Amino acid sequence: MACQARLLNGGPYIPYVPEDTCRAWCDLATSLGISDIDVCSIDWMAPVNWRAIAGDDKGEYTTGYKGDHDQHNGGNFTGAFMPLWAGYLLVCGFGIMFSIITSIMVKLEQTYGGLVLSSENFNTAGRNIKTGLTASVIVSQWTWAATLLQSSNQASQYGIAGPFWYAAGATIQILLFGILAIEIKKKAPNMHTFLEMVDIRWGKAAHLTFLFFGISTNLIVTGMLLQGGSAVMTACSGMHPVAANFLIPLGVVLYTWFGGLKATFLASYIHTAVIMICLVVFITYVYAVPGDYECDALNGLCTSGYKSAECTEDHTKQCEALGSAAILWERLAFLTALPRMGAATPEGGLKGAVGTNDVNIRTDCFFSNGTLCPLDSDVGYFPSAMPATIKCGCADATPWLAGESIGCATGYDSATATYSFDHPAGCYHDGDYHHGPVCDNRGGSFITMLSMDGLMFGIINIVGNFGTVFVDQSYWQSAIAARPSAAHKGYLLGGMVWFTIPMALATALGLSSLALNVKMPSSEAGAGLAPPAAAIVLLGKGGGIMIVLMLFMAITSTGSAECIAVGSLLAYDVYRKYVKPDCTGAELLKMTRYGVIFYGCVSGCFGTCLYAAGLSDDRFGLGWVYNFMGTMIGSAVWPVAAWILMP
Questions:
Q1: Choice between 454 and 385, residue whose per-residue pLDDT is larger
Q2: Integer CA distances (angstroms), 524 to 73, 133, 230, 436, 612, in order
Q3: What share of the chain has pLDDT > 90, as a percent?
Q4: pLDDT tier at 587 (50, 70, 90 boundaries)?
């Protein structure tokens, strides 16, 4: 075993993992049958600070979109691996670039392909889209920000069951919608929106009711896009979330306004290709690219009487790479075998974690949030000169330090009221650790499909996503635009291809954020930051940029489909139905374009409202909205499907 070779050689040891700690971890690894990794090459007591790796050197302490303190070894990091101007350039520049590309392609088709940009063509793309483009559009439309971010959050909570239930629970709807696509071509080949047929079958009251459900679905989907996009852009560039909420829809509105549904289809093809390329890169790095020398076993490189400079230098660095499924499994197995941090039980604590300043945390005194509270009598913890406000039971204790922090302080400066730490664990909260078994998973393992909470999420996911497919005009519009022979094939092919995106990405980056011992509290995971965190640890800043690129592709493609969907609803089911029934095609085209612009502004306001709600209560994050959508629109699924399936 690799860790035993290190012990036999008498070292070298990475900082803050002395011989006694290494020996205890090695004994635990032996009992678990771990053989491929050297558990002593990882400081399990100091989660990897991905924000520090991202390299913000401005000394700011604002993190994510919450403004929370995030300190590491005396330095402050926001995780912003790109300057602010680069974030604005990315959001605005990509939007303008895709607007130019799609506009040129539409113009060429008008010039050489005989395309006439009427209201009919603007909203239905000529009803002549083939199977491949239909499938790529379905993949692109169904790849939300939540597909990339929330799926990895489920992996960090429930293990491998989370990605499976996310992917499987959201593929069923696309496959079943293929049946509706066939019925559309048979029974209503000239329809523009699904609400037109609701009105014909059930009248005005039902039409207004399902108009509310349709617009609500579009708002929820767009809100999740902007929640995930603004959180990642803020974390990666420092862009203000409100600015991100309004600037992200800008480019989408531009090319959708010009080219309509056809422009959406053309852009979606490019977006899907970019997402797939980035996905392959991440999977390769997780499962096929090994780490450097610090991740290798010693294998006799160092002898008991001689330590080469190469050995000492390489094997005092922490291993922050994977390289195979076996290593991923062993890291997760060891993580769940470690004692849970901050638990109000004798096994919780940091005993033997800091070498010369050995920490023996008391288990009989806790803060109200369950965090262990140090006393003056605890040797090697806070010095006796610490102020009374830090002592256990004091109501006005400093929250980030006394109420949550775990570690060993070696000094206190009364002039600045700051503590100095000799171990990174002194700068972490108990929520930053992922030690201990997973609740309600069989054997407490991350690598099991038998997860009760994962199953419950799967049920919620299936119910909620039926609403966001069957009640979303964009999916009806894609079926309307497809050729009769291509509609059902496109949905079946698109559904099967889409399954690979959340399943592969979440099992790669979501589980990697755990296996790499990344500092990832539940609030950050809920905001969708697990993929960029794991990508930055694995690939550095390049990994973060790739995640931002994937995210932007997902947001713009789905956002464009939502814009043209709402534009069609406003033109055909509001303007022509209730305002001017005898309107011309030119007027419908104008109203659709106005609707696209209007919805772009409304979506920015709605995204800002969700951001404000998250500030007041961090439970209202991306995960909450994702789970809420089933409650909001689930009741409309069967009636909407029934209008075309029932005789």
A1: 454
A2: 20, 36, 13, 19, 16
A3: 22
A4: very high
Task: State the pairing for strand pair 75-76/405-406.
Answer: unpaired
Q: List beta partners, residue 409.
A: 421
d(CA 194, CA 473): 7
The amino acid at residue 137 is V
**Tokens read off for 608:** 């800002």
User: How many CB atoms neighbour CB 193 within 10 A?
Assistant: 23
In this predicted model, what pLDDT tens digit does every residue of 338-348 receive, in sequence order?
877 644 333 33
Summary count for the chain: helices (H), strands (E): 23, 6
CB 80 within 8 A of CB 236: yes
Name the H helices within 510-584: 511-515, 522-526, 530-539, 541-570
Would you state the pLDDT for residue 615? 65
How many angstroms separate the CA atoms of 43 and 25, rounded?
10
Q: How far is 16 from 132, CA to CA, in rounded Å?
A: 55
Q: Which residues contact 556 (CB under 8 A, 6 or more apart)?
A: 94, 95, 98, 248, 251, 252, 267, 271
The torsion defined by the Cα of 571, 573, 574 and 579, in degrees rounded to 10, comes to 90
Nearest to 436 by CA among 351, 333, 534: 333
Report the alpha-carbon angle 491-492-493, nearest 5: 95
Q: How many residues does the chain have?
A: 647
Q: What is the DSSP letter of 419?
A: E
Give 380-393 as a DSSP string: TSS-TTS-GGGSTT
pLDDT score for 299? 52
Cis preceding linkage at 12, omega within 30: yes
Structure tokens at 275: 């997402």
With 0-12 CB in 10 A as exposed, 13-18 as middle and 19+ as buried, what is 116?
exposed
- Where are the strands (E) in 371-427, listed by range? 405-406, 409-413, 418-421
Selection from 378, 425, 421, 427 nearest residue 400 by Cα: 427
3-state secondary structure of 520: coil
* pLDDT value of position 566: 94
385: exposed, middle or buried (Cβ count in 10 Å: 0-12, 13-18, 19+):
exposed
Instruction: Give dist(CA 372, CA 392) in Å, integer.
Output: 9
Least confident window among 43-52, 154-163, 357-366: 357-366
pLDDT of the residue at 358: 31
Identify the weakest region by mean pLDDT among 280-284, 346-350, 550-554.
346-350
Kind and range of the H or E run holding 429: strand 428-429
CA 562 – CA 137 distance, rounded (Å): 12
Secondary structure (DSSP) of 321-373: ---SHHHHHHHHHHHHHSPPTT-SSTT-S-TT-STTS-----SS-B-TTS-B-
**Amino acid identity at 621:** G
- Going by pLDDT thresholds of 50, 70 and 90, the confidence category of residue 390 is very low
Tell me what the pLDDT averaged over the chain comes to. Answer: 76
Contact in structure between 486 and 299 (CB atoms under 8 Å) = no
Q: What is the pLDDT of residues 408-450, one digit of tens each?
A: 344 444 454 444 444 444 445 566 777 888 888 888 888 999 9
* Selection from 144, 146, 151 nearest residue 168 by Cα: 151
More confident site: 371 or 490: 490
Per-residue pLDDT tens for 28-37? 888 888 888 8
